[in-house]
From TrEMBL:
Regions annotated as coiled coil: none
TM segment ranges: none
Protein known as: Oxidoreductase
PANTHER family according to UniProt: BCDNA.GH03377 (PTHR43818:SF11)
Length: 415
């Protein structure tokens, strides 16, 4: 519900929802923006309160708390999960921490939002999904953070496809292109190490476009044929000084290229790379159906291109839809038509949707099960690439969840 839909009978402030967040870098800043803004734009059944933020570096996490509006800071995520004023745990930490934090938070009775990709392995994702299923019986919800579903133009594309405007789908083309690793002197960060990130461009970027392909089509990928490549295999170790600092081995992919087939037989192609010179955040898709086509470019995120193939050929063609009308998804709460939104609004919409799911007891989308399905596709891509682009089926049945091994408690931080 937005501010124009508030009932005259609504009186008094809504109950609060204490949010605790693990991680405070890029995604932490984006999620903070969403939590701060959601209740100021939408009339929500619960009001999010930024209770506490956690990070390992005491100085950095306290600075982040002050900058982003968090009431308290913790240097151990376990302490954050244990706080009585935290009812929801938002996980923005590296991938190798997702499973342990999520399972602990769910078992502690908290709701959970976890950034994509859900985990580093299918086994971890299965464990998380199973924990979410158990928590669901206790009234808890768990959501995977695929924020691009919340771009109004993308949500409108899904609506058009669901209404049958494209008819039976034939082809889906998705790409996500960035260039931030083109320079071989870029340092070896955690995103370039398999033990922390799980994979490279495949998990970081490919997870988004796999999720969007399945979300928009309403179908699952049944198999893939893939290639991956690491173009820069060694990078400088990060260091504060300018002296010689040595090199470390990159253990993830720089780029992934794969084809797939949907359950209906429709064909899909995917490209994810952090080596596309000149491309900063170019997530693009085109979907072709028997009755029409849709195209989208994140760098023009308020626009959707639509072709209606049922119109006479003499006047038919792609037309631009400016997705800023109040009847478009999420837009009734924002600005007058023609006043564009941006990247940060997707996190506000994500917070709004999760709060609505918590308040009304409805399953969140995307769920941990949805995140698990994407993880299965990513694993199939890696297996296919190891076999040199051999077609690899995507499993559909869950294996027995593997318990997550707890990490050792950190050493006490000196005051």
């Amino acid at each position: 519900m937005d501010r124009t839909e508030q009932s005259d009978s609504d009186t008094g402030p809504p109950p609060t929802l204490g949010v605790g967040m693990v991680g405070h870098a890029f995604m932490g800043a984006a999620h903070s923006q969403g939590w701060r803004t959601a209740a100021r734009v939408f009339d929500l059944p619960l009001r999010p309160v930024l209770a506490a933020i956690a990070g390992r570096d005491r100085t950095a996490v306290h600075a982040a708390a002050a900058r982003h509006g968090w009431a308290a800071a913790e240097t151990d995520w376990r302490a954050l999960v244990a706080r009585d004023d935290v009812q929801l745990v938002d996980i923005c930490a590296p991938g190798d921490l997702h499973a342990e934090i999520a399972v602990a938070a769910l078992e502690a009775g908290k709701h959970v939002l976890c950034e994509k990709p859900l985990a580093n392995t299918v086994a971890e994702a299965e464990t998380m999904s199973a924990a979410a299923d158990r928590a669901r019986t206790r009234g808890q919800v768990a959501m995977t953070g695929f924020n691009y579903r919340r771009v109004p133009a993308v949500a409108h594309a899904r609506r058009l496809i669901a209404e049958g405007r494209l008819g039976a789908l034939r082809h889906l083309r998705f790409s996500y292109l960035q260039d931030w690793l083109v320079d071989p002197a870029a340092p070896l960060t955690w995103r370039l190490l398999r033990e922390h990130a799980g994979s490279g461009a495949l998990g970081d970027l490919g997870a988004h476009i796999v999720d969007l392909a399945q979300h928009l089509s309403g179908e699952l990928l049944t198999g893939v044929s893939a290639l991956t490549e690491t173009f820069v295999r060694e990078r400088p170790l990060p260091h504060d000084s300018t002296a010689a600092r040595g090199y470390g081995t990159v253990t993830v992919d720089d780029a992934a290229l794969f084809n797939g087939r949907l359950a209906s037989g429709a064909l899909a192609s995917f490209e994810a790379t952090r080596m596309a010179t000149g491309r900063k955040n170019a997530l693009r898709f085109e979907i072709n159906g028997e009755h029409g086509s849709l195209a989208f470019d994140l760098e023009r995120l308020n626009e959707l291109s639509f072709h209606d193939h049922t119109e006479p050929a003499a006047s038919a063609g792609f037309r631009r839809i400016l997705v800023t009308e109040p009847d478009h998804p999420y837009l009734r709460a924002w600005w007058p038509p023609g006043h564009a939104l941006g990247y940060e609004h997707t996190f506000t919409h994500q917070a709004r949707d999760l709060i609505e799911a918590i308040a009304h007891g409805t399953p969140p989308e995307p769920s941990f099960a949805d995140g698990l399905q994407v993880q299965r596709v990513l694993a199939a891509v890696e297996e296919s690439a190891r076999k040199n682009a051999v077609h690899t089926p995507v499993p559909t049945q869950s294996a027995q969840p593997v318990p997550v091994q707890p990490a050792p408690a950190p050493a006490p931080v000196q005051p």
